Amino acid sequence: MADPQALDEVVTFTSELIRIDTTNRGGGDCRERPAAEYAAARLAEAGLEPVLLERTPGRTNVVARVEGTDPAADALLLHGHLDVVPARADDWSVHPFSGEIRDGVVWGRGAVDMKNMDAMILAVVRAWARQGVRPRRDVVIAFTADEEDSAADGSGYLADRHADLFEGCTEGVSESGAYTFHDGDGRQIYPIAAGERGTGWLKLTARGRAGHGSKVNGENAVSRLAAAIARIGDHEWPTRLTPTVRAALTELAALYGIDTDLDDVDTLLGKLGPAAKLVEATVRNSSNPTMLDAGYKVNVIPGEAVAYVDGRFLPGGEDEFRATLDLLTGPDVDWQFHHREVALQAPVDSPTFAGMRAAVEEFAPEGHVVPFCMSGGTDAKQFSRLGITGYGFTPLKLPEGFDYQALFHGVDERVPVEALHFGVRVLDRFLRSA
Question: With a threshold of 0.85, does the pTM exceed it?
Answer without folding.
Answer: yes
